[in-house]
Every structure is written in C-alpha cells, then in structure tokens.
Amino acid sequence: MASEYQRSTRLEGDNMTRRNWALIGRLLLSGTAVVLVIGAYLADWNATHLYNPRWPPHAKFHSGQTLAMAVVLAACGVFFVWRKKGDLHTNILAGAMFLATYWLTQAAACFYPGVAFKDPEFLNPGQSLTDVPPQLITDVIFCIIIGVSTALVWRMDEHRP
Q1: What letters, b where the CB count within 10 A reaches 16 and e where it falls short, cover 68-92?
Q2: Which helix (H) or strand (E) holds 46?
Q3: Which of 49, 56, 92, 95 could form a disulfide with 44 if both were Cys (CB 3.0 to 4.6 A apart)?
Q4: Which residues are within 8 A (CB) of 157 and not within 5 positions of it... i.e. 6 or more apart?
Q5: pLDDT at 8 over 70
Q6: Residue 53, exposed/middle/buried by CB under 10 A (0-12, 13-18, 19+)?
Q7: Would the CA dihedral through 116, 119, 123, 128 be positive or negative?
Q8: At residue 161, does pLDDT exceed 50?
Q9: What is the pTM for the complete model shown?
C-alpha cells in the first residue's frame, strides 16, 4: 500500500505534468499568433498584393485591412491566452476564437463569387486556379493546432485533484 508521502508525491507529479501540458498549449497558441502576423505580412507585403501595379487602390485597402486585422486578432488572442483574471476556460476559449478567426475567414473567402487564392499571373508552372490552394491547407492545420492547444490548457483545469 502506498504511503501518504508517495500519494502526495504522485499528485504533485501529476499536477506538474498537467501544468507542463497547459504551458505547451499556451505556447502553441501564442506561436500561432506569431505565425499569423509574420505569415500575413510575408504573403501580402509584396508584388502579389500591396505592390501589385494591377491592383486598384481599393483592393490594396482591403489587403491593408487584412494585415491590420491579423495583428489585432493575434494581440487579442495572446492577451486572453495568458490572462490570469477570470475563468480559465473562458479566457482560453476567447483567445482561441480570436486566433482561429483569421484562418476561418480566409477559408470561407473561397466561397465568394469570383474569388481565387492566387492571381493567374502568379501561378506556378503546372498549377491551376482549380487546385486545392495551400492557404486552405494552412487554414485547416492552424485550426487543428488551435483546437488541440485549447484542449491541452483546458485539461489542466478539468483534472484538478
């Protein structure tokens, strides 16, 4: 039969393991925020978007709006992911929702009329506008990472001794 000390030590170890997984979850959520901002600027701050001479000023306005939205969503997401006040579940859910919004709306954009993920002049050899776009794959991957990371953080709170 386990002594009181052994049970206490095991519980402390379990708590430490849960805290470590929760930290990993928070770090992954924060990492998605960093990738969001850097990726958005790498994708749009170039000749395919903002510096594309064929794009009218209003299209560039929407690109700028999208870039600013990426920064704001990432900042709000990180704020709630690391927030100490309030309910852990609510904070993490709010953070995850802010972080997933960009990816979900980018995926949803393909359902609007006349939309393409790439302008024809920027297609790679052998690529067509009907191919599955890499952005859509990225959207799915990041939504999965956000979901798994959220579950990791929530798990810490749900299994308290």
Answers
A1: eebeebbebbbebbeeeeeeeeebb
A2: none
A3: 49
A4: 22, 88, 89
A5: no
A6: exposed
A7: positive
A8: no
A9: 0.83
